[in-house]
Amino acid sequence: MLNDAEEKSDETIHSLFSGVLVDLQELAEQQLELTKAELVEELNRRVGAAKAFAVATFLLMLASVLFCLSLVHLLHWMASPVEADLAWLPLWSCYAVMATVLGGAGGLAASAAQRQLEPTILQRDSVADTPGE
Fold this sequence. Notes:
- There is one protein chain.
- By secondary structure, the protein is mostly helical.
- It has one domain.
- The protein is 87% helix and 0% strand.
- The protein contains 2 helices and no strands.
- The chain is rod-shaped.
- The protein starts with a helix and ends in a 5-residue tail after the last helix.
């Protein structure tokens, strides 16, 4: 009778440990899935920000090329006779206007890319500032 009680006790302990191990395995799998989902979300956010930075860089480079062309045309306009250019808006100012528009668009794109990265930076700072860890 004592052996039957010990066997039932051993089986109960064995089933409890088996249940705990199964629960731990499920918990570990869920944690891995959650971590994978967070990494994919973070990667998508950073890819979007990288694309926005690429657009901003292209627009700003194009704006600087147009600005340089406007300076060349300004120099030419200043060296020309007074009545040589009959247009009401000199060519150098047309380049300068386009450079300003593209520079503003590039600045807005860079600002948007910066805002896409800010939640990541704020989350990292809030985790580091958590008391008790």
